[in-house]
Amino acid sequence: EVQLVESGGGLVQPGGSLRLSCAASGFTFSSYWMTWVRQAPGKGLEWVANIKQDGSDKYYVDSVKGRFTISRDNANNSLYLQMNSLRAEDTAVYYCARNRDYFDCWGQGTLVTVSS
Amino acid sequence: DIQMTQSPSSLSASVGDRVTITCRASQGISNYLAWYQQKPGKVPKLLIYAASTLQSGVPSRFSGSGSGTDFTLTISSLQPEDVATYYCQKYNSAPRGFTFGPGTKVDIK
Q1: What is the C-alpha separation between B103 and B10, in angstroms, rounded?
Q2: Which of chain B's residues have a Cβ under 8 Å away from the Cβ of A99?
């Protein structure tokens, strides 16, 4: 069974940093692009970033470029999102998802709250 | 940038009704479109990809159609467990970017 489990969310002050993790199991992690998608409270879905199978290509939504970094560790079946210079508008549930251009498997999400 | 719109933004229908949701792209995206279902408080779930291909395990009352700029998601007979927000998503510019529609909330009348 495919499983994606996010962790690392929490309350952080504006300007602070947080690192999200996503542990994958049940599939060959190194064979797939992976993605982060976020959802602000009461709002819709927003794609944040994705990363190629070997980590050589990465893409970001404009609003997080230069602040967020996506990475992966194929040896440990793990996906990461390093978030720096956090803003109130980054407050959201962050989901990791398996990326086949569409997103066919999703984790349960981890909540990031940016507030003083 | 290609924008995605959905209509209606919300709807209320009776159990057994046929429900249709429309998604429109501001430019043609061929059939690079997916539909997701998000039940209240739950994780999004892929329903349809390539505009009309049903994801494994999804009930056959769900169907998708369209190509180019206009797409539809149809629920042939609405069930109580279909109460959810439905999102379309374009992926014609993958892997450089993905855009979701604003969502359509479906309730039972």
Answers
A1: 8
A2: 95
